[in-house]
Amino acid sequence: MEEDDVTIREQNFHSQVREYIICFLLFAVLYIVSYFIITRYKRKSDDHEDEDAVVNRISLYLCTFTLAVSGGAVFLLPFSIISNEILLSFPQNYYIQWLNGSLIHGLWNLVSLFSNLCLFVLMPFAYFFLESEGFAGSKKGIKARILETFVMLFLLALLILGIVWVASALIDNDAASMESLYDLWEFYLPYLYSCISLMGGLLLLMCTPVGLSRMFTVMGQLLVKPTILEDLDEQIYCIHLQEETLQRRLNGSSTHAYTRGSFAHQLNKELDNIRNQRNKLERRKKASGWEKNLLYPIVMLILLTGTTISVLLVALNILYLLVDETAMPKGSTDRAIGNTSLSTFGVAQAVLEIVLIFYLMVSSVVGFYSLRVFEGLTPRKDDTTMTTIIGCCVSILVLSSALPVMSRTLGITRFDLLGDFGRFNWLGNFYIVLSYNLLFAVVTTLCLVRKFTSAVREELLKALGLDKLQLSNSPTDPESGKLSANGHQKTL
Known about the structure:
By secondary structure, this protein is mostly helical.
């Protein structure tokens, strides 16, 4: 009996050590990838080891940690889905015994914990630490800036807790709710993170439909479009004429001192735009036939198929919500991983769900940076400030943390949310979940209809040459002013 107890304790010990090692290795890979991504966009600074350099380095490490947690939140649901299907397919395989319910459940809890830590502690600390200078009259240095940062964090925590306390007291005005107001760990933090998850879900609801329609434009810029009723040689010749004309005007303006300054800067900007257009046209001319006529239609068809399947799954989920209460994303209460398949068609449907989850995440990021409100957060290679990087990391963390919730709420997957992800209060509200599905389906459909109607109209005008006619007749178009600047460009 004692030997059996020792054996069980040893097995539990080895299982926990194995889970810790796996979690550490996964997070280490995400951290390294996140570090290279941030350093690619971070503004290059001097090599002097001064106080600001130390502060920037600490903020960089905190942002890298936050971005790694965001990556973990993105891969969390796909990893869980594929793990469940692997355990069902190979239940007795010795080499996948480490892939168990305890590991999956622990990963969900760790991602939830680190998301809260980054969102409420690390990112505010990085921002205040970056902006701090020390209190007036105190000795300048790292210690003074750390002291100011902690004071600002304490005041921010009081402000947030006060807002949550007042809001919860106004919403739930009963005796049980009033008693729970004084419970910090069991009430404040879950309630606060539930509100943040709802905000993240609403942000995804706003960004994802825009991103789904914007993805066609982004892929159209990366790939070479088919040449239909277009004469690329004529367009390249006209671009050359424009480039030569702007170059002559720029050379002539350099000989006159009174024409320098803003006018020369504007000419240089126009010349850069013309050269970019010429490079794009030359790339289209040099592209192979399969790239122009086969790759572009296939990619567009894949994007259209993915978007259509997503909308159809949301429509089916709306029907399930109306007729079946079990379709509500209430979250899982046990650790049953590998017992039953949550996909009707097995591994094929699980792979489709994983592809759709990644597609929705990429679309949400593209839609986020496409909105005018968040255009200022768009990172630039080697020219992004630490403040902007902090804003980007917080935004991506909010989007990635809400991705599993959105995927379950929209019915993209039937995998139940584990850990603290299933404790969100609003997930049990039927009207909120139903309205969320309806809004996503309607807004996505409207964005796609508007996108394709405008795209078809533009391509028809371009094929018939009417776009140039409208461009030359439009007095308000900034491009028309460029084209009418000289005789050669008026003929376009």
